[in-house]
Design goal:
The chain is of the alpha+beta class. It has two domains: 9-108; 110-139. Helices cover 46% and strands 25% of the residues. Strands 1-2-3-4 form a four-stranded antiparallel β-sheet, covered by helices on one side. The longest helix has 36 residues, at 9-44.
């Protein structure tokens, strides 16, 4: 073998460092594209993003192949603060798992909804009594 074709230790190190740098660049670009895809979906539904955080060992990571996991917090179009684990991949789209409401505009955890439910129940009862009274009058 001629000395021109022999691979030296320096060249091997250079190749290894080059491959590591390439893998890191690909991962960073994939992360940027993932965040844009998640933001696009939530903004398309009228929400606003608070935070997107990469979570490599989220629930369900063990059986996944090429998907990446993110912890996402956003405010939806109803001004409810939501949190979910999002599984995403370049060709598979986004999958929102473990979604939960963590608070409303005032920081409560659904207190506004409970008050609205009570108001609607009272209104329903009043309408029911009024209907019964009218049906009794017509007989």
């Amino acid at each position: 073998m001629t000395p021109d074709l022999a691979v030296t230790g320096v060249e091997t190190t250079f190749y290894i460092v080059g491959v590591i740098c390439l893998v890191v660049v690909i991962r960073v670009v994939a992360g940027i594209l993932d965040k844009q895809r998640i933001e696009g979906e939530i903004n398309g539904k009228g929400g606003t993003i608070e935070s997107i955080r990469w979570t490599p060992f989220a629930r369900g990571w063990l059986g996944s192949k090429n998907e990446r996991f993110y912890e996402v917090v956003w405010e939806d179009s109803d001004q409810l603060r939501r949190r979910a684990t999002v599984k995403t991949a370049m060709l598979a789209g986004n999958y929102f798992a473990d979604s939960e409401v963590t608070g409303g505009e005032t920081g409560d955890t659904g207190g506004g909804l409970a008050a609205e439910n009570q108001r609607l129940r009272r209104e329903n009862e009043e309408l029911r009594r009024e209907l019964e009274a009218r049906q009794g009058d017509s007989m």
